[in-house]
Design brief:
By secondary structure, this protein is an alpha/beta fold. The strands form 3 sheets. The protein has a 17-stranded mixed β-sheet that branches. A two-stranded antiparallel sheet has the order 7-8. Strands 15-16 form a two-stranded antiparallel sheet. Helix 1 runs antiparallel to helix 8 and helix 2 packs parallel to helix 8. The two termini are 33 Å apart.
Length: 551
Amino acid sequence: MHPSALLRLSPLLLIAACAQTPGPRTAAAPPAISEATLTTLTQILSSDAFEGRAPTTAGEEKTVQLIADRFRKAGLQPGNNGSWYQNVPLVETTASPSSLRITGGSKPLVFSYRTDMVANTYQVQPKVSLDNSEIVFVGYGINAPERGWNDYAGLDVRGKTVIILVNDPDWQNETLQGPFNGKAMTYYGRWTYKYEEAAKQGAAAAFIVHDTAPASYGWNVVQSSWTGAQYNMDDPGGHADQSKVIGWLTNDAAKQLFAASGKDLATLSAAAKQPGFRAVPLGQKASISLSNQIKRQASRNVIGILPGKSRPNEYVIYTAHWDHLGRCDADPSGDDICNGAVDNASGTAGLVALAEAHAKAGPAERSIIFLAVTAEESGLLGSRYYAENPIYPLAQTVGGANMDSLSLAGDFRDFVAIGSGKSELDAYLQRAIAPMNLTLKPEPSPQAGYYYRSDHFSLARKGVPMIYAKGGEDLVNGGTSAGAAWAADYRAKRYHSPNDEYDIDWNWAGAIRELQIYYGVGRALADGRAWPNWNKGDEFRGIRDRSRAGK
């Protein structure tokens, strides 16, 4: 799961209006999901022998071969013109940054790498330098003309360093009303967008101010995810169109920076929430240099297909990412392998178990694709590459579902659909859970923007309706207190750390129920004739309409 997508979200209400979507009258009966497949594959994939499954490593080679072998044994066919693999050209950069030096304020400041800030670059160069770059606070760093919002209005930031707040201006709203959907994060709140827009504006550097509440994760996640080897698409231009330096500041470092300019971070952050906010030059200059180790090497997506009986050129797709962080910060015992058992060995095992279940049931009317993608932890790169270079036409891809970390706290009484209300797939999900006596509850933290944080988003932004769902925290054994405790423990002690290891005591009942639900949704899509769309007004509706119209 990408750094900003934490496991075990609380449940989300599925809107009743979606029940009007054309589709099957009844859901397919829940199939038998092999617990042996789930436990065996999760344990193998998260073992030390796989070294944390970092792309382009020996751990990748073992991983993709294992997945392809299990797809073959399940009864799938190779999904890429006779091959199980789709090459994903990546460039790996390992940056060694200097300290970030700030001058021009009431006193010079020196921010240390990892403790005060992290810094990296998308540019593929052996050395990158930022020298005396003027610093400007640009609020949330959003340029959204359709919403009447532009934090860069009247501003020329070419060659300058911009300081940006995480999330959207209205993330603290209690409702879903506001210029950016209230407390529900939009793509404008994602760190990926903020760096993209800063580069478009010509900024030489962009630093996001970390704050745990709006980011939805702590500084430890930034440390583990933004240091060491980083991956990007191997662009012919070496990403020279991107900012020289991108990174994060701790909240304390940002407060010091603003104070040295005679400003207050809290006061300017409050001002940045208001329409009409204008950027504020801080009267300071930033300097930093980075040395880059560069390695170009292809990683691989693994793809299998169960061809359809009557409409094989129409497709349903399941996705899960096989990668994790590889070697990372060691724990007190010296263990430096981030095994990624929950995230996402479990989801990869679930993908194989679904392949087995569908193959055992026999071909559906439409073809079903099973796609295990690389480099999710590096910014959804494997799924993005597939979406930009699809083996099967996206206009002919009906929809699908993504699995990123299965529920391993046990069976649950409630269910979550991240991004509920976005597409007509909600009705399929609603039918799939109907026989299971599950309760649907509202999402407590839509400000986290989870829909934009895993591999389904790569396909969604190209117009393909995708769902991403999980069991909730109301556990059959222990209720919400037990579920919340399990989630809190995972976030605090295991997420993106060497402690995310296989546990023989895990209760797989919730994971099996999740996969049964995914099976029901996928089978209904694959045996049906409907083409569910995004709901009217959704950001992806126009893309889908143009895609289906062949435009």
